[in-house]
Amino acid sequence: MSNAPVIAAVDGSEHSLRALEWARAAALRRGTGLLVAHVLPDHAQLYAGRRSALHDPRQPEEFADPVGDRIRALLDTAPDRPGPIRYEPLEGSVPEALRVIGAEGLMLVMGSRGRGGFASLLLGSNSRAVATTAPCPVVVVPHAERGAGAAPDASTGRVVLGLHAAETPADVLDFAFAEAAARGTTVQVVSAYVVPPAPTMVVDSPFAVIPPEGLPDDGDAVPAEREMLRSQTERLAPFRTRYPDVPVEQAAVPGDAAGRLVDASRSAALVVVGRHHPRRTALSMMIGSVATAVLQHAHGPVAVVPTLSDDG
């Protein structure tokens, strides 16, 4: 799937234009093409259906598509163009149309909200539905008010990977390492462990980031933390071999994994999480609680990665 394009889902809103810019930069980093997908609004779809049913040659063959015109103009003036670029108007519901075209993509990039819905919502219903069902990784780019002030195509910052060492599928790790390699940056691995509450525990204290060579060999670390770091190291070993130039930082934190990932998103280039709990069936429409929370509250782009292979 290395030649698959990056797909940008657009609807003409400012949210989707931020996603388009992120997707353009991603296609350049990955050395692949860009497919811009626009699900036509209902009135355009009704027009196409009416013209087809009536077979009226006096009617124009195509309904005016101002979104397509605007997208082409923006890409024509972009400083760097990935190649090839294809614009694809789609019919049907937004989640279903993007789910179908997502089978062609290396990843599908979309804004956290579109034109519809309530402005106060952090994550639109279409964004959530696509992140839940698409057959490829889905990157959700937040609107400007939620961001940390960085441009959506910023290449700085590390890639943060939410990892459950025993359960996160290999596809999730591979996507995170590939993205870090394309950016020339670090993968920061964050795992959470459960500990009994103690009077002296400071829940909001910053977590420690530890390079693999710095893992404690003595008894200074909390046993659960030490075991979590050891499990991380074992799980990460084949990916460190596959991506030898990608630096790795490891963090084991008590309590809430989603909260820590949201905090990390303030300075991250991308947060990567798995979509489903692996014990759910392949046809499950559920999305994991960590992925849901990170999508709802992250301050930067989030990649939700499904299990793509049988050995994931």
TrEMBL record:
<feature type="domain" description="UspA">
    <location>
        <begin position="6"/>
        <end position="142"/>
    </location>
</feature>
<comment type="similarity">
    <text>Belongs to the universal stress protein A family.</text>
</comment>
<feature type="domain" description="UspA">
    <location>
        <begin position="158"/>
        <end position="306"/>
    </location>
</feature>
<dbReference type="Pfam" id="PF00582">
    <property type="entry name" value="Usp"/>
</dbReference>
<dbReference type="InterPro" id="IPR006016">
    <property type="entry name" value="UspA"/>
</dbReference>
<protein>
    <submittedName>
        <fullName>Universal stress protein</fullName>
    </submittedName>
</protein>
<dbReference type="InterPro" id="IPR014729">
    <property type="entry name" value="Rossmann-like_a/b/a_fold"/>
</dbReference>
<dbReference type="InterPro" id="IPR006015">
    <property type="entry name" value="Universal_stress_UspA"/>
</dbReference>
